[in-house]
Inverse folding.
């Protein structure tokens, strides 16, 4: 359980939170997270500055930090999954990329064209496309629930003078999925509903081709029965924390996506059966030839490319921590 002391908040974020609350004393954790991450000008992802990488002021690493190796592997995998020379007919659309940090930067590709949709940009996808994301779904707002006194209580955030505090919301909201009828006292479920809604929104766009998302997630059964402390985490200065209300607007907030829900959203939009695998297995299976060429070319030394491959594929690094989900949708 979070400590009950108030966390100080940046005045701009606090003002935005009060506007979102519309006079209510508290708002849902999903609304708090939406403001803390995505409020224009003051949210974590909307105020500029470096976040990803090894340099000063950064907070975490993603596979795109292993550029251009990751980009080459993504190109090889997409080409294989589309089949033959089909990549030349497709536009590559990367959703949620950091400015200047797209997966295809400095990477030759076979696609008809390539573009990025940044944070806050409306979805505009059409024709034959590859829709790609890397660690986008885990950063969507989620709802939090705690089992207490024989029932599930939704958690929210109260707004005090200059600070924010975790509270139980006064009225229980309907559960977004079948919750366990009982659980140990204090069991937390983080329900990534906005991630599933984003997948549905992508599916509603008039396009056909390949959906490919790299992220970290679990099945609903794992979330509901195997993560008693929830899956939500905060990241700041390359350190993981559990205090989600500390530094509102100044730290990343994330939770595991529910792959079952993403898969359901894609099936409901006419995609063929989605396929899920570890990042390691996906890249070896679909970009194995490119991996072999890289390792052969650098066989005599531990180059930067080989270090990047190790980071991406080794089970102790990103290879098993992250998964890849892909699905194809044919032209209507």
């Amino acid at each position: 359980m979070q400590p009950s002391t108030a966390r100080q908040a940046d005045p701009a974020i606090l003002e935005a939170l009060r506007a979102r609350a519309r006079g209510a004393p508290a708002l849902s954790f999903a609304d708090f997270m939406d403001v803390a991450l995505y409020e224009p000008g003051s949210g974590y992802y909307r105020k500029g500055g470096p976040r990803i990488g090894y340099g000063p002021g950064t907070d975490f690493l993603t596979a795109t930090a292993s550029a251009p190796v990751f980009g080459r592997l993504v190109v090889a995998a997409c080409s294989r999954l589309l089949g033959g020379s089909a990549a030349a007919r497709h536009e590559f659309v990367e959703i949620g990329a950091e400015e200047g940090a797209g997966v295809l930067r400095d990477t030759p590709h076979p696609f008809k064209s390539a573009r990025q949709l940044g944070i806050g940009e409306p979805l505009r996808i059409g024709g034959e496309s590859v829709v790609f994301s890397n660690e986008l779904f885990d950063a969507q707002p989620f709802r939090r629930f705690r089992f207490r006194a024989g029932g599930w209580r939704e958690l929210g955030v109260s707004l005090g003078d200059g600070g924010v505090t975790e509270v139980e919301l006064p009225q229980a909201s309907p559960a977004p999925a079948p919750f366990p009828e009982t659980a140990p006292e204090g069991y937390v479920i983080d329900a990534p509903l906005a991630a599933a809604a984003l997948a549905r929104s992508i599916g509603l766009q008039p396009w056909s081709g390949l959906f490919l998302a790299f992220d970290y997630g679990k099945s609903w059964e794992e979330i509901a029965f195997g993560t008693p402390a929830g899956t939500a985490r905060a990241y700041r200065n390359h350190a993981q924390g559990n205090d989600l209300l500390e530094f509102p607007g100044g730290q990343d907030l994330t939770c595991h996506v529910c792959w079952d829900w993403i898969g359901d959203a894609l099936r409901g939009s006419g995609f063929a059966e989605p396929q899920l695998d570890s990042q390691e297995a996906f890249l070896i299976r679909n970009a194995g030839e490119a991996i072999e060429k890289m390792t052969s070319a650098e066989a005599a030394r531990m180059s930067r490319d080989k270090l990047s491959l190790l980071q991406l594929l080794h089970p102790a690094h990103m290879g098993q921590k992250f998964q890849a989900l892909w699905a194809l949708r044919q032209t209507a």
In short: The chain has one domain: 7-329. The two ends are 49 Å apart (CA to CA). The chain has ten helices and 17 strands. The first strand starts at residue 7 and ends at 8.
